[in-house]
Amino acid sequence: MELLPLLLACSLLLTVAAPARDITDACASQINDFQHLNSSGLHLTLHHPLSPCSPAPLQSDLPLSAVLTHDDARVAHLASRLAGEAVSSRPTSLHKKIKAAGIADSLAATVPLTPGVSIGVGNYVTRLSLGTPATSYAMVVDTGSSLTWLQCSPCVVSCHRQAGPIFNPRASSTYAAVPCSASQCGELQAATLNPSACSRSNVCVYQASYGDSSFSVGYLSKDTVSFGSGSFPNFYYGCGQDNEGLFGRSAGLIGLARNKLSLLNQLAPSLGNSFAYCLPTSSSSGYLTIGSYNPGQYSFTPMASSSMDGSLYFLSLAGMSVAGSPLAVSSSEYSSLPTIIDSGTVISRLPTSVYTALSKAVAAAMSGTPSAPAFSILDTCFQGQASQLRVPAVNMAFAGGASLKLATRNVLIDVNDSTTCLAFAPTDSTAIIGNTQQQTFSVVYDVAQSKIGFATGGCS
Ligand SMILES: *[C@@H]1O[C@H](CO)[C@@H](O)[C@H](O)[C@H]1NC(C)=O
Ligand SMILES: *[C@@H]1O[C@H](CO)[C@@H](O)[C@H](O)[C@H]1NC(C)=O
Fold this sequence. Notes:
This protein is α+β, with helices and mostly antiparallel strands. It has helices at residues 3-15, 18-31, 64-82, 91-100, 183-186, 188-192, 263-271, 352-365, 408-411, 435-438, and strands spanning 35-38, 41-47, 124-130, 135-142, 149-151, 176-177, 197-198, 204-209, 215-227, 230-244, 252-255, 274-278, 285-290, 299-302, 314-315, 317-322, 325-326, 339-341, 348-351, 371-372, 381-383, 394-398, 403-406, 412-416, 419-422, 424-427, 431-433, 442-446, 451-455. The longest helix is centred in the first third of the chain and has 19 residues, at 64-82.
């Protein structure tokens, strides 16, 4: 990830007028984001959260240290969710707000909210259209959560600042609020890990909370969702009346986790039960496809099943090598923790013993390069920039023969203009294949056949 050059470029833009047009020109082809439906599924453009071409870019001066702090919060909440712990996330104030706003006066104030995954700042962005006539919204894509929601007027309590107008249900002829008796209302508990509630007018109220202090609360609704020429009636989603937190300037979130209410599951009858993406760097664009895909190019690994959380995507890491040599750990260490693959975690987390062996092997292979002090959660750092250094090949092998042959940009992350660090960190709870390692690979989640595939050259 070329975070720092991008941040510098963006801060320059604030002071120099002329280059702004250059960036705009560079993004012009992406501004009308590609949306195409054909027999091989639905094809959408995907943007890096810090890309200047994103329809909802994060604040461009966000330091990498802040990105990594949010990343740690996301990882901690994924881990606590898997451990079945309820970590409090301002539940009391959230309940008070909901009641004060009259959104749901039947809400049981004694039930604590279970936070979901911290949205953090690592999630990628695409566009979705909603309603009749259809209007388009910039949405964060999250494989770690299930319910899709977006900010809805009249924003009874609060809407964050978003790019473009806020969805107005009254302007859509196909909009309907979902009653409390609907089966979809009963499915909210599994989708959001929070109980649903019922409004005075008998409309089902959802509460999606994301671990840090981010949350969205509002009415469960249905309307026609569309992407280019493809439209799908009766899509269930949250119409957010109180939306607070780290959502950038996006309108809301698309949930791609494995749950009845996720976008994937709702579109699966029309498109097929799989999705694929290529996560771009901050200076390129990638894609998200939903539906059938060409299996030929991929190497596959089975999705592992877990009783801990059926909505996350588990797989089995089987081995790692540096410059062709396997790491000096016994093979059982790789499976010593459950492992998930996640689009929103920036830095991969490995079992501590595996991480230590990786760090040593990379440092040994780069012994000619002067080392540098640790940076935030990254402790294996070197003087220089990744693109200028000789970096050993790092390979991640998965059960069944799938592998990620990491390029330099997937191994090292430049933390400032004189330092680059190994983009992995140790963990004792849940191992995670994060997005720095996935960048520019094609990754397919074939839920129908319970397997995950990797292929190179994804974003090109
Ligand atoms: C469907 O569209 C995508 C994106 O334009 C394209 O890459 C793919 O080849 C198309 N598939 C078929 C079967 O036409
Ligand atoms: C870059 O980060 C390293 C590692 O934390 C630090 O030692 C160094 O002082 C930083 N350099 C600059 C120019 O900020």
